[in-house]
Amino acid sequence: MASVADLKEKHAAATASVNSLRERLRQRREMLLDTDVARYSKVQGRAPVSFNPTDLVCCRTLQGHSGKVYSLDWTPEKNWIVSASQDGRLIVWNALTSQKTHAIKLHCPWVMTCAFAPNGQSVACGGLDSACSIFNLNSQADRDGNMPVSRILTGHKGYVSSCQYVPDQETRLITSSGDQTCVLWDVTTGQRISIFGGEFPSGHTADVQSVSINSSNTNMFVSGSCDATVRLWDIRIASRAVRTYHGHEGDVNSVKFFPDGHRFGTGSEDGTCRLFDMRTGHQLQVYSREPDRNDNELPAVTSIAFSISGRLLFAGYSNGDCYVWDTLLAEVVLNLGNLQNSHDGRISCLGMSSDGSALCTGSWDKNLKVRTFKKRLFPFTTS
Amino acid sequence: MRGEANGGEDLGQPRGEDREHDEEGEERQNGGAAHQRQPQAQRPAARPSSGQQPQHNPTPPVTMRNVGYVGKHRLSAAIARLDQELQSLQEELNELETMEPASTACQDVITSTGGKPDPLLPITSGPENSSWDRWFQRVRSSRSNKWWASRGSDFS
């Protein structure tokens, strides 16, 4: 083997080449950013969305957790929500009636994420135990009233930060982890089908915080990481990321596909949300709040969701704000954190019902709230 | 829960920090589909270079403390990774030669938002779906009233 000195020299040269190529890439990309969504929309004369403060009413407050709410997920079909909390429990709610249908005490109380299976019969959760536990909601509770785990997915070497079932596939689930990888699991066997990242050079270089599967093409998913990037993966090709998206200046806490399946949104510790084009990699828009008068650090974005058309981007922040962004004009049109009946703490998670009629927010104030558009007195008009 | 911004009050594992200390452990062999921790030497090269530098840099500056076999092995692995990254960066640069500008995608975004009726918009393309108003229907309360929470809503 070459001497250490030779290797060091080679390493330095390779590092310099990589940095120089990255810089060329960055400049070339900048030249291709001839506009952004907001400027383009304004040129087209698009009118901003206009809300009255009372338009998005809080129609349900789901109370029952005795600790901070960390994660929530809706069923695709029914009006059920599963939530995970610092109190070490999952609760399944019928959001229409506000009733709890299940309260599941977890073996490991340090839960960070939960998800509903596509058929609504199972829920998954994961956290500091580095595993993902699956519960069949039709199981009988044991003598102590505890619901048995139907499967535990082990293999991650770090916390499970996020999990999502592959749409229309009860048997497959994708997790993201503090071990810098994402994993595709077969829930029926408990086996890892594929590992994305880790030993491969195109994987994330820090904890992965969030995943979002493309519902228009379920072979593709994106992951957001503390390495400030988002990566696009094809589940059929685990060996390398399809693309890496740069732009954020801090941990990417949340990623969500845009409804058309060709773009995705992100939310970051740097206080901004961004919209990226999946195929080209272009950063199409930055959603950046005004700094406050005292020029304090911007609050972090904890979680995002799009309305069903994509026209609205909901973003929860670490200071309790919940901005509603007009996606096209990049303007804040409402702050759900500043209304009557808002949460009393940080919004940690957001989710849209499958028909887009309701937004659920979960908070460190231990509650979940469901918001919908106020009852319409007049027929809808065409836009 | 997820990092510095939460005020450190929670049970969250310190992110990335356990890796900084784990120099000697990096060479351990794991069975199955184990991943190797990326050598610290490579980390600076892996930082995104587009736009401004990231505000916080969890990895310390690179110093080569191990000059024995372990150091050589790790250096070689780092060089191999850098070479692979160079290749993939070059591929991306080639792609950009013929890539359309952002305005094309911007037009697509605008078009797609007009596509679906959106219950949360004040004005949206029809048709109206009456199930959107199910949240306003009176719901029969059950005996187990303690989960009933309509008092937490904006209307009762």
Overall number of strands of chain B: 0
Structural class of chain A: mainly beta
> What order do the helices and strands of chain B follow?
HHHH
Averaging pLDDT over every residue of chain B, what do you get?
Answer: 62
Number of strands of chain A: 28
CATH homologous group name of the largest domain in chain A: YVTN repeat-like/Quinoprotein amine dehydrogenase
Main β-sheet description of chain B: none
Radius of gyration of chain A: 21 Å
Measured as a percent range, the helix fraction of chain B is: 25-40%
What shape does the CA trace of chain B take?
A: elongated
Give an overview of the whole structure.
The complex is a heterodimer of chains A (383) and B (156). Chain A has 383 residues and is mainly beta. Chain A folds into two domains: 1-32; 36-373, Methylamine Dehydrogenase, Chain H (7 Propeller). Helix content of chain A is 9%, strand content 42%. Chain A has two helices and 28 strands. Chain A starts with a helix and ends in a 10-residue tail after the last strand. The model of chain A has no long low-confidence stretch (mean pLDDT 93). Chain B has 156 residues and is an all-alpha fold. Chain B has a domain at 71-110. Chain B is 31% helix and 0% strand. Chain B contains four helices and no strands. The longest helix of chain B has 29 residues, at 69-97. The radius of gyration of chain B is 27 Å and the shape is elongated. The two termini of chain B are 35 Å apart. Chains A and B meet through helix 1, helix 2, strand 1, strand 13 and strand 28 of A and helix 2, helix 3 and helix 4 of B. Chain A: WD repeats lie at residues 62-103, 153-195, 201-243, 245-286. Chain A: It comes from Digitaria exilis. Chain A: Pfam families: WD40_Gbeta (PF25391).
